[in-house]
From TrEMBL:
<protein>
    <submittedName>
        <fullName>TonB-dependent siderophore receptor</fullName>
    </submittedName>
</protein>
<comment type="similarity">
    <text>Belongs to the TonB-dependent receptor family.</text>
</comment>
<keyword id="KW-0472">Membrane</keyword>
<keyword id="KW-0813">Transport</keyword>
<dbReference type="Pfam" id="PF07660">
    <property type="entry name" value="STN"/>
</dbReference>
<dbReference type="GO" id="GO:0015344">
    <property type="term" value="F:siderophore uptake transmembrane transporter activity"/>
</dbReference>
<keyword id="KW-0675">Receptor</keyword>
<dbReference type="InterPro" id="IPR037066">
    <property type="entry name" value="Plug_dom_sf"/>
</dbReference>
<dbReference type="Pfam" id="PF07715">
    <property type="entry name" value="Plug"/>
</dbReference>
<keyword id="KW-0732">Signal</keyword>
<keyword id="KW-1134">Transmembrane beta strand</keyword>
<feature type="signal peptide">
    <location>
        <begin position="1"/>
        <end position="35"/>
    </location>
</feature>
<keyword id="KW-0998">Cell outer membrane</keyword>
<feature type="domain" description="Secretin/TonB short N-terminal">
    <location>
        <begin position="60"/>
        <end position="110"/>
    </location>
</feature>
<dbReference type="InterPro" id="IPR012910">
    <property type="entry name" value="Plug_dom"/>
</dbReference>
<dbReference type="InterPro" id="IPR011662">
    <property type="entry name" value="Secretin/TonB_short_N"/>
</dbReference>
<dbReference type="InterPro" id="IPR039426">
    <property type="entry name" value="TonB-dep_rcpt-like"/>
</dbReference>
Length: 252
């Protein structure tokens, strides 16, 4: 019974093409010295068929992916050449990289022909709720009033967070307006039109106000120079002793 290879021509060189896991294996079973010269007569043609001729005429085993050579043209190779010289002539117009291992020629896409195309990159993480702008929420899950980010659950004192969304929706443009919306904060009028806020009966003086953790610059005790809320993401109001946080403050 004839085998799949029984119709191959016999002679000094035998070649065959096999598909193994997407690779074409062009086999030539004789000749392992690349320095040996061979007579090559390969006309310009499709690179896939030219490689088979190269393997047959030069006693080479050739490994390549068919997708790497489809649509590419192999240049003509004529004369008595070493396998390396013949390969250089054959591939001079084809953008295909190659290397030798003994009498095996390995082909691949040339580096210049491989643009780096990155797929979509998804970055995922846990949102701790510190920044409120763009959240559309009236509530925040974390605070930085203790100088480090932590959840409200881990804060052992009562804290109210007035978010950017709440300030926008209620048009709270000044700190005095924000304080008036905060539970547990009382407003007291002073002489000459000034005022003061109190928490638990204790006045909130200059050292009680911090901006990004820096004390003494957030509010005027006279109430005449209230900060504009446009540039702030949120206001955090701590009700309780603040000395552990800023080194100064009132029990309120």
């Amino acid at each position: 019974m004839p085998t799949p290879f029984s119709r191959l021509r016999t002679g000094r060189v035998k070649t065959c093409g096999l598909r193994l896991g997407g690779l074409v294996l062009a086999l030539a079973f004789q000749g392992e010295v690349l320095a040996e010269e061979f007579d090559f007569d390969i006309p310009a043609q499709a690179l896939n068929s030219a490689l088979k001729e190269l393997g047959r005429q030069g006693d080479l085993q050739i490994l390549y992916n068919p997708d790497d050579v489809n649509g590419k043209l192999g240049s003509a190779v004529h004369g008595r050449l070493t396998p390396e010289q013949a390969v250089a002539d054959l591939l001079k117009k084809a953008d295909v990289a190659h290397s030798f291992e003994a009498n095996t020629l390995i082909l691949g896409i040339a580096a210049s022909a491989q643009p780096m195309n990155l797929g979509p990159v998804a970055i995922k993480g846990d949102h701790f709720g510190i920044t409120t702008e763009g959240s559309g929420s009236y509530a925040a899950t974390g605070v930085i009033i203790n100088k480090t980010s932590q959840s409200l659950r881990d804060t052992p004192q009562s804290v109210t967070v007035v978010t950017r969304q709440l300030m926008n929706d209620k048009n709270l443009t000044g700190l005095d307006e924000v304080m008036a919306q905060t539970p547990g904060i009382t407003f007291s009028q002073r002489n000459f039109g000034s005022h003061v806020f109190s928490s638990r009966g204790f006045a909130l003086e200059d050292e009680s106000y911090t901006v990004d953790g820096v004390a003494g610059q957030g509010y005027s005790v006279t109430g005449w120079m209230t900060p504009d809320m446009e540039i702030y993401d949120r206001v955090e109001v701590l009700r309780g002793a603040a000395g552990l946080l800023i080194g100064a403050g009132n029990p309120g």
